[in-house]
Amino acid sequence: MTATGGEVSAHETDVTRYGTDRTGSSSSGTTPSATTEMPTTASVISTDIFTIVLPKTDDGTSVAIPISGNIPVYGTRYKQIHVSVNGLVSLGNNYVGYNPRHLPIGSNDTVLFAPFWTDFDIRNTSESSVFATVYQNVKNTTNITQEWRQYLEPDFNPTWALDVHWEQVCPFPAQIYDGKENTTFRLVLLTDGDRSLVAFDYDKNKALPYSLTRSPIIGLYFGSAGYSSFFNKTGTPEAVDVSSAMGNIGRIGKWLFKLYNKNDVSNATAICRDWLLQESRDEVTSPFPACPCSTSQIFADLNFQFDNVTYCADLMTPTTKGYGLHCCYNPTDTPVRGSLLTGSRGPSAFYRYHPEMYAALHQSRDIDARDACCTDDITCKQYFSRRIVSSCSSYKPPIIAVAFGSPNLQTFDELEYTFSGNEEYLMAETDTGSALYGTMEPIWIGDDPNKPNNSLTAFTTFTFVGTTNVTVSQNDKRTGIELTVAGKSLTSSFQHNSNFRKTYQNMTVYKNRDDCVVLVQTPGFSTTFCEAKGSISAMVVTPPEAVRNTRGLLGTANSNKSDDLGIRGRTVEPLPLTSTDREIYSQMTSWSVSPDTNISSSQNGSSNATDVTPLFLDEIYPNVYNDVNATDYVACLLTDTVVSKACLYNRIVLQDDVTANKTRTVADTIMNQKEVLQTQIPPLETSQSRILNVTVGTPMSLYLKHVPSVTASCNSDITATCIDNSTGVMFTWTPVSLDTVHLSFAVEDIKLGLASETVEYEIQICDCSGHGACRFDRLLSQSHPSDNFRLASCDCDIGWTGSHCELDFDGCQGAPCSSWGANCTDLIPAEQQKQKHPYKCSECPSGYRRIGIGCFDIDECYENASLCDNEPGICFNTNGNYTCRCPRESTWNGSLCISHPEQSTTVPESSTVQSPVDLCGYYNETHKCQNNGTCQLQNTNDSICVCTSGYHGDQCQLPNVASPRDGDWVVEILLPAAAAVAIAIATLCCILAVVRRRKKRGLDEESDQDSYGIRGSYAVPSSIFLPRFNTNWRQFYGSPSTWNDTAPTVHRERPLQFPITYPYDNETNSSRPANSFDDQSLDTTPEWCNNILLQEEEFNIGRPIYKTERIYPHLDDSY
């Protein structure tokens, strides 16, 4: 029957559909998987515990039960679970199962737990109910855990549980069997998110009566992972014995199964749970690093290293809080090449721990945690909420200072000046203690070291001093760079390795694509050192907060160039910006390093011996900075109003146009880099959520605003309309299929070559094929939680099924008419909606009677009690007929049914395909063999303890009884034996007297109570209390296994037998068997015998005992 949804719980609501029972009455329920799903009610016990009650129906199932996370079964994780009235629980697809089927069922995406699968009916019943209690956030102290704790592996701590009860349910039809044939059982499902177990728990006092018309299925089906029919009587009428069989945990009627292979268990849930706990204690706090908006900015920011293959860049060194950052950019032209890819789930990523500086913590707390948490949608959201990548709008571009040429300097605050010093100088020093030093030496005329120029100098050495010292210098011939790190020369490695890279504490040194040395240090400077024809240039690119209040030739880094020309160690007013070149030179020489503390000389042994008399441009050409029409001035213009002083110096002082042009190019590049870094393109703005719920075949539209000076672009991997009207873009799209697409937008400033970050949407798409309602709150399991494109599920209309309601529901699925041999006709969806049921059965065959749309077997034995009066045995109902036979455990000897002793309860042989339990390796300490006993597996669901000498018992817990000593045998054996014989003789005399009196009266003691056809089978209970098993007792003889409470066979020619057992210890009235025939202790005096003879009707001897009810008390497993 098809189905519908209803109220799931206090937390979820399903759209109401329909379902039908075989009376033809309408009810609710179904999911896309083609079965009968009924509306349920929920009782909330607490925020973590609530109960879902199934309506009283036939063949109904619950709506999808809420799951916190997912339920793993042999490596596959399931997010939906349904409970069926018919003794089934299904994971994945909903499965009613009108009639039981032998496992496997052939569906690889469905898991079935069948504690007792048969056709139940709870309509119009007073005591029947099916309900499921959900336990969320389970702890070790939760009752459901405490109940099963002793049977669980020590390291298994469930976090979610489901407790399903089938209480007093009866077979179909309820109007006949309710109150006569009812049973109770339950299923418990436990999971920690990585491992799951399921328990079957049967009430041995409420077993379903034996019937030849029912063949219940008991077992587990794991989808593609196999199945287990652990009970060998499954699929036969004898399956009812499961409630009295010894379970695989050593308890009658209790079974527990692992749903995993230990070696294949993923610890994802445990890892994520531990990670969330750690994160709550160690919260990530601001400031957070932010990615540059485009690759243009990435290339200008030395703090990032770009990978051309992945098109992603990583923050080179950790922030002051140890954070890392992974920034990814669009490698295609749609919507804009080089724009930052953003999204709530990547691909750009914030790292709590920097990948290089804290490699182990980064792997466990960033990467492993992400992989673990993103096995589930909820925890994946929790992960990314703690690892969110800030918008590039919060990106703080670095500031730049430059020292290059002969020599030219540009401060952090963009003040440009020339300074031909001839010593080592402090270039910049921060409050953190990091410092950059530069050494200037005379240039060589004609590259001859013996011909120094006494007027012009250049930078030949730079030294960084911090946690690790780095020196970059010219070699002896000034033809290349030498590199020294921490006092160790790395020149050879740097020159011969194109991928040179070294990482130190808070510092990385590497070689860029221009063969320059790049030093990235946190906190502090990030500097590029390049060789430039006999000199070294240095470009410092660093975050503003890292160099605030700097001191040195590169200024103060406070966005105010007016105080860049200060004097070292003196609090005097800095020179005004209109000062002459000579005044600037005289002031800035105060930043020189004294010879005794010379940083560079102490490392590379160089020193300056040539006296230099600087040349000053404004003295050679007094009006140089104001003659805007001069040829040299025009040649050195960077913009209409900005001129390069370095270019002018080279053209006028050095008379070197080639060098001047190169200098101008460098200055122009620096200026453009600053503009690129400091220009932010605002992203597109929208009032809509970044999560779009779209439906195949239904148009959707978006309008995103942008600033007027940019151009918007849309990605073109889908057929859509994208119109830019200079202030915004209108996007219209009609999805045509469920094929994966990506929806993103960006804007671009074509003049600067800059792009905004990409606005990417998460798409949740639905296609119910026109036959259902979309459920965007319930995503399909094949949608990976970290994807930005996911599939929503459907609530299908009556008559339709499938993940997307694309299939005509087969109303005959599950063979609803097969149990009575009728043919089933599947109704088309329109008929299903009209008739309110999905199938039609042919006419009922002989032996069946119509009830609604179905048939039920006529119980001929119930309707006619005399059917077997002239046949052997008693009447048993069968499907469509009846048979006369003896009850179970008895046979017909030609004239009556002879009872056979009941076999002791043992674990049945297993037909398990995949064994879910290894008992010897599974029990905890309290269930292992004691006193050095050895556990041996007998089959996949049974084990025994092989005891050492001197011990016996199920767990070798009992010491053997010592043989009596020579002096004790009379007291311990002969006296009790003699007493027993005396009592037996006295009692037998009384009985024989009664028999003689009955013979004289000619009484016929045939009982009219023997409705089961047992002829002449009488037995008399012993008046001496039967012993019960108790470990405190010492048995009269033998071992526990020799005690037998089975009544002997009584023959017609010897109708009375009187077996006597005698306990060693005395027993009180209160501890005697409950079925003792009178309320007093046995009196063995002569008066007692006379009273019996005079009042024989009060002596319960001649009463027939039904062989289905044992005379002696069944030995309880607790004794």
TrEMBL record:
Report if keyword tRNA processing is assigned: no
Record-level Gene Ontology MF annotations? calcium ion binding; ErbB-2 class receptor binding
Alphabetized, the UniProt keywords read: Disulfide bond, EGF-like domain, Membrane, Transmembrane, Transmembrane helix
Positions of the VWFD domain: 399-601
Q: Where is this region: Disordered?
A: 1-40
The regions listed as transmembrane in this protein's record are 973-995
Domain EGF-like: start-end pairs: 857-898, 916-957
Residue ranges of every copy of the AMOP domain listed in the record? 264-387
Return the InterPro entries for the record: AMOP_dom (IPR005533), EGF (IPR000742), EGF-like_Ca-bd_dom (IPR001881), EGF-type_Asp/Asn_hydroxyl_site (IPR000152), EGF_Ca-bd_CS (IPR018097), Epithelial_Barrier/Signaling (IPR051495), NIDO_dom (IPR003886), NOTCH1_EGF-like (IPR049883)
Q: Mind telling me what this protein is named?
A: Mucin-4
